[in-house]
Predict the 3D structure of the following.
Amino acid sequence: MPRLPKLAVWKFTSCDGCQLSLLDCEDELLALAGSVRIAHFLEASSAQTRGPYDLSLVEGSITTPADRERIQHVRRISRRLVTIGACATAGGIQALRNFADVEEFARAVYASPEIISTLERSTAIGDHVPVDFELRGCPVDKAQLFEVIRAFLAGRPPAVSAHSVCVECKRNGTVCVMVARGTPCLGPITHAGCGALCPRYARGCYGCFGPMETPNTTSLAAEWERRGVPRRDVLRVLRTFNAAAEPFRRESERHVD
Amino acid sequence: MDEKTLRVVTRAALEPLPGLLRDRGFTVVGPTIREAAIVYDEIESLADLPIGWTDEQGPGGYRLRRRSDEALFGYNVGPHSWKGRFHPSDVLLFQAQRNGRDVEFTAPPTESPPVALFGARACDLAAVAIQDRVFLGSASIDPIYATRRRGAFVVAVHCTQAGGTCFCESMRTGPRATRGFDLALTELLGAGEHRFLVENASERGAEIADRLASRPASSEDLAAARAGVERARTSMGRKLDTDGIRDLLYRHAESEVWDAVAHRCLSCTNCTMVCPTCFCTTVEDVSDLSREHAERRRLWDSCFTLGFTHLGSGSVRTSTSSRYRHWITHKLASWHDQFGSSGCVGCGRCITWCPVGIDITEEVGRLREAEGSRAP
């Protein structure tokens, strides 16, 4: 019997939601377990097999000195390293600290802030080690996650497009919420992958998948303001799960009063 | 059109029409309200039409509004076109299965029940004619399009009002449908009677029209129908000066107009996706975990994505200005060289459904202005 590729799943600073997306694959999990050796996945099992690993999925951002050391180790023992989710690819919601004083946050939250060892900024995995592929989303889409695993096992590029959410709306036949309802929508500047979930339910896109390949954030923000969205709200909507993704960060800075 | 053969059908007498089409095996697709817009979807009866509704359209804006009457066709084109019926946005091309040392390829079945387009407007029929040339007009016929298009029945509606982003008059594609239909209706609301002037253009159109209770059209009916289409013709929300437009675009391969529009353009692809003639696709190959099974799908793509021009060394059109220039130049200029007509039918969808309201007619105007200001 051929040796099965070894899969590892790692957690850094995160909510575990992206790992749960993998567990949520349900029926396909059995097929996965038959095609790879799940060698390290603490969210699923405390049983661990030593590295090196053929494919590492990394969830979470780097927010502590310990994270910063550990990611170097994970990279060294991983043949392919794929980051999954907004934390790992853009710093996540915890990157809101990047716009404020983290010590002040620690004092507000913890009874004994002096025992908290944390970095000033939350950063993406790709800021620390080379990454073979970044899968977007907060959380990731489980179909895309499976596609990435299948693609890496087969040695082919994943069928994951970096164009806007609008493409997904139009392929689905979903009517544009911005044009037909005047609902502010981040879809035109947001990376596809969710299947345009919110517009399908008549809501504007919240940008969970971060910036698309060529985001014209300035034009969309100007259009929102022209349609009556206050500057402060433009700032806030850009500072959520992907606040530290460079195009969103840069545009949000233009809306600070 | 021979006016002597035209008949008039009252609103009540039109009621059986969708059923007559269904009885003949057609899937009847027509305008209906969904998601705050008038889209094309399967309809059961006239009650599914947007009765008494209209739309207000402008750059980046679309709103449904109540009419003061019970018109069946008192609106203009919405976000969908017929393109999605014949040229699906996502379609399986083939599956491959490894059997030992062989690979077996299977194509999905291509049969598709014939469709009846109910309430097709002149601009959209012009678009169907263009896509016919694209998909069926050369040696390489697209089997997916051909199968879905084959035998389609068309009930056209001549427009008697124009929308805020309409410019079919400029493109000479409307507001009166002149070809590509089996039956054509002109909705008449005046003179105290809600009625339709019915024109048949094919044997099967005549066969169905004969089953609707009707009377010969009077000279008043004919005059009202002509006046309605004339009203649409003279109230176009937009105009596009097409004089020498092919060469105008070719002369402006380099222009500051492209840089200006790129400041606003989102590269979101909406203009191309709603365009009833844009036909570009990409393919996606996926394999399963066992690597024994693979499939290839064809998906709508757009010249506004980076992937569209991705070659070994990366994307060719990296700037938004180059992508917008490519789209408008193909649509209004090189389409003539490639397919013998403009690629634009003046439906106005790209204007209405652009989230930031970029207007193709204004951009052409800017090119003309730029040229005027440079002239000696």
About this structure: Chain A has two domains: 6-154, 165-253. Chain A touches chain B at residues 28, 31-32, 34-36, 147, 149-151, 153-154, 156, 159, 161-164, 166-167, 170-176, 178-182, 185, 187-189, 202, 213-214, 216, 218-220, 222-223 (CB under 8 Å). The two ends of chain A are 64 Å apart (CA to CA). Chain A is about 40% helix and 10% strand.
